[in-house]
UniProtKB/TrEMBL annotation:
Residues 1-71 form the GST N-terminal domain. Gene3D superfamilies: 1.20.1050.10, Glutaredoxin (3.40.30.10). Belongs to the GST superfamily. It comes from the Eukaryota. It comes from Friedmanniomyces simplex. InterPro entries: Glutathione-S-Trfase_C-like, Glutathione-S-Trfase_C_sf, Glutathione_S-Trfase, Glutathione_S-Trfase_N, Thioredoxin-like_sf. Residues 77-210 form the GST C-terminal domain. This is GST N-terminal domain-containing protein.
């Protein structure tokens, strides 16, 4: 989102990379910003004193209100705004936790537990199915959508920004092309967002540590 704000408004910021493999997020300096010890955190240094924001959805909504004055990535219409919030919170509460558990039990857990892997994979695929329903326009007269929220085909918004970084990693999570076949509109949505210049930068070298 910061990269999108840069293209839209010239927004500037600095980045501090935190080494989670060395538990940098559990250091006292970080816990002062986020007592939960999770990345990412943003700090608005234009406030006095500087104002920290934790939890990605809250961070994006903060940036939307404070730095997207024209609602390029949000909505002025209250019903569209509500729809944007619904899909943002849907992924925050119903998508990310399941896919995160697939990643953990498939790659990080010291013991492979088939039941856990199967349960969370199935739940993640179910959630992908919910995204597919929305993007396919199955229950709408408007037909397939380009984005999750907004009238008609929708508008690229924080709801997409929140959801896309997880879903685009379906192969890394361990899903096969065959398992993704039921979600053609999700795959098109992934590709559509992937082509944005700000998105390319947002997942690029500036945010990785060698």
């Amino acid at each position: 989102m910061l990269e999108e704000l840069k293209d839209a408004y010239g927004t500037e910021w600095t980045t501090t990379l935190v080494d989670i493999m060395k538990n940098g997020q559990k250091s006292d300096w970080f816990l002062r910003l986020d007592p939960n010890g999770r990345i990412p955190v943003i700090v608005d240094n234009t406030q006095d004193p500087p104002f920290p924001v934790m939890e990605t959805s809250a961070e994006m909504l903060y940036l939307l209100k404070a730095y997207d004055k024209e609602d390029k990535f949000g909505f002025k219409d209250e019903l569209e705004r509500s729809q944007c919030l619904q899909w943002t919170f849907f992924w925050h509460g119903s998508g990310a936790p399941y896919q995160g558990q697939v990643n953990h039990f498939s790659r990080a857990a010291p013991e492979k537990i088939p039941y856990a892997i199967t349960r969370f994979k199935n739940e993640t695929l179910r959630v992908y199915g919910v995204l597919e329903i929305q993007l396919s326009g199955k229950y709408s007269d408007a037909g397939p959508r380009d984005f999750l929220a907004g009238k008609g085909k929708g508008k690229y918004s924080v709801a997409d920004m929140k959801t896309w970084p997880w879903v685009k990693g379906w192969e890394r999570t361990g899903f096969t092309k065959e398992e993704m076949e039921p979600f053609p509109n999700v795959l098109k949505w992934i590709e559509r967002i992937e082509g944005r210049e700000a998105v390319k930068r947002g997942i690029g070298e500036a945010y990785t540590q060698s």
